[in-house]
Specification:
The complex is a heterodimer of chains A (322) and B (135). Chain A has 322 residues and is an alpha+beta fold. In chain A, a hairpin with a 4-residue loop joins strand 6 and strand 7. By secondary structure, chain B is of the alpha/beta class. Helix content of chain B is 30%, strand content 26%. Chain B is built from four helices and seven strands. In chain B, helix 1 runs parallel beside helix 2. The chains are: A alpha+beta (322), B alpha/beta (135). Chains A and B meet through helix 6, helix 7 and helix 11 of A and strand 4 and helix 3 of B.
Chain lengths: 322, 135
């Protein structure tokens, strides 16, 4: 049995982990060794990207296990990763490991991991929230808990900061709603809040990903009849032009779906001066930079990554003290 | 003019939750005068739940002659999107099976029913940045 060693990059922050190369795994039951020894910078949004990227790879038909050395387990980085729910969520996707960490995932009121750096920054990383749609009779019911979870996270900031919180809720709500409506998969959310002791300004980063097909594939799969033959060869800018168009939905039979979601996400990001990227197929699109829904404008704001990155949003914005 | 603040008066921050909306309707007063301000600031709004709340107020004000509803929100969207978030699937606006809310439909509804509807949009620092009126 061949052991699979994954030497995790030193930065598990930002959207870098989406670009991280996980070795191709072949054969069943191979032990997976996640080497976190060199990780120095760990954020919830970055770890979240790494997590669902890893799960996506694992889900491609291979059952694996992971193991750690004693040195790994006593390291600060490992403890931090543990507190951010990484293993408890990962275990749900690994055969026979579901009870290893006591099912610690998805407790709604979890404490943030707080660290202070030399520059006077307070970094609060919130445990990864796995939106487990299977727990709900109707997938959209999960959105109420997601919104409540966001409120709990940001409750302490709302009185003192000029924060369009409801607008932020719209973005997360619509992203997760798309996962609920267009996939059979779960969604994952990671959030970090960095506060400067000097400016008191908040720098908020988040990532939301799911294990679904992504918008590009979803639009393609939603084509039917004449469209199917005409648009079979659409590239990502064309599928996104359709997805971002007001009223466009791949769920035409759905009473609830009005094709509003992407428009709400884009408008909210612009209003909040948020930098918001979508990673899909082999591309990164800068949603907040798209000025009009034209093929040319979308092409201008989409970048080739040259490898499949799964499907995720990564956002960053600032909030100022009143 | 009666002001109903869903955040301060009812501690209801999620007006996109259909269950909370049905609980809220039980808590709300049974009758309202001809003029009312609905303050949604600090509250998440979403279709189709929020329109159920709007329907409730329109219904409770039905015998009041000339009526006026002012809606305050801090969710900043273009007019068309905002109208959909607030009114989509409102039973008073679903005309001829129309599934879309556009300003024209709202305007003709307001005129026919002797009701004035105003939406005021506020930013995060409490500044009024947009107003839309239908009558």
């Amino acid at each position: 049995m061949k052991s699979i060693n994954i030497k995790v990059w030193p930065e598990i922050c930002g959207y870098f982990p989406l670009l991280f190369v996980v070795p191709k795994i072949s054969g069943k039951g191979n032990p997976l060794y996640l080497d976190f020894k060199n990780t120095k910078d760990i954020s919830s949004s970055g770890l979240n990207c790494f997590l669902f990227k890893l799960i996506k790879e694992i889900n491609e038909g291979v059952s694996v296990n992971y193991w750690f050395t004693h040195d790994d387990i006593i390291s600060d980085g490992f403890k931090r990763i543990l507190k951010l729910n990484f293993f408890s969520v990962l275990d749900k996707y690994l055969e026979g490991r579901n009870d290893l960490w006591g099912g610690a995932y998805l407790k709604r009121k979890q404490e943030a991991v707080v660290t202070f750096d030399d520059m006077g920054l307070e970094v609060k990383s919130f445990p990864i929230y796995m939106v487990d749609f299977e727990r709900y009779d109707c997938r959209r019911d999960a959105l109420i808990d997601v919104r409540e979870w966001l409120r709990l996270i940001f409750a302490d900031y709302l009185d003192d900061y000029c924060f369009s919180f409801t607008q932020f809720q719209v973005i997360i709500n619509e992203i997760v709603k798309n996962t609920a409506d267009h996939t059979c998969a779960n969604a994952f959310i990671g959030i970090d809040v960095v506060r400067s002791a000097i400016t008191q300004c908040l720098d908020i980063t988040f990532s939301v990903g799911d294990l679904g097909e992504g918008i590009n594939n979803n639009v393609r799969m939603g084509l039917h009849g004449k469209d199917l033959s005409r648009y079979r060869n659409w590239d990502i800018t064309q599928t996104y032009k359709a997805a971002l168009s007001d009223g466009y939905t791949t769920k035409n039979g759905s009473k609830l779906n009005k094709g509003l979601g992407m428009s709400l996400i884009m408008q909210s990001a612009k209003n909040m001066r948020m930098s918001l990227s979508v990673f899909d197929a082999k591309s990164r699109g800068l949603l907040d930079k798209i000025e009009s829904i034209t093929h040319r404008e979308i092409r201008k704001n989409f970048y080739n990554i040259d490898r499949y990155v799964g499907f995720a949003y990564y956002g960053q914005f600032k909030v100022y003290k009143k | 003019m009666k002001i109903v603040s869903f955040k301060n008066d009812y501690n209801s921050l999620d007006l996109g939750d259909p269950i909370r909306i049905s609980e809220l309707i039980i808590e709300l007063e049974d009758r309202y005068d001809g003029e009312i301000e609905l303050d949604f600031r600090g509250c998440f709004i979403d279709y189709p739940a929020t329109s159920v709340l709007i329907d409730y107020f329109i219904d409770r004000m039905r015998d009041m002659g000339k009526r006026k509803i002012v809606i305050h929100t801090d969710m900043q969207f273009d007019e068309k999107t905002l109208l959909r978030l607030i009114f989509l699937e409102s039973k008073f606006l679903m005309r001829n099976g129309a599934n879309e809310v556009v300003d024209k439909i709202l305007r003709s509804f307001a005129e026919e029913n002797n009701i004035s509807i105003e939406i005021k949009v506020w930013d995060a620092v409490g500044k009024n940045i947009d107003s839309y009126r239908y009558e």
